[in-house]
Amino acid sequence: MDAPLLSRQMKITLIAAAIAAGLFYVLRDVVAPVAFAFLLAYFLDPVVDRLEARKLLRTNGILVILGAALIVLMVVVVVFVPLVIEEAQRFIARLPGLLTALADRLGPLLKQWTGLDANEWLDQSTARLSAYAHKLTAADLAPVTRILGSIFSGTYAALLALVSLFIIPIFSFYFLRDFDRLKRKPLDWVPPRHREWLVAVVKEIDDVLAGFVRGQVTVCLILAALYSLGYAVSGVPLGVLIGLFAGLLSFIPYFGSGVGAGLAVLLCLLDWSGWGPLVGAGATFAVVQTLESFVITPRIVGDRVGLSPLVVIIALMVGGELFGFAGVLVALPAAAVVNILWRRAGERYRRTSFFTGGQA
Question: Global pTM?
Answer without folding.
Answer: 0.60
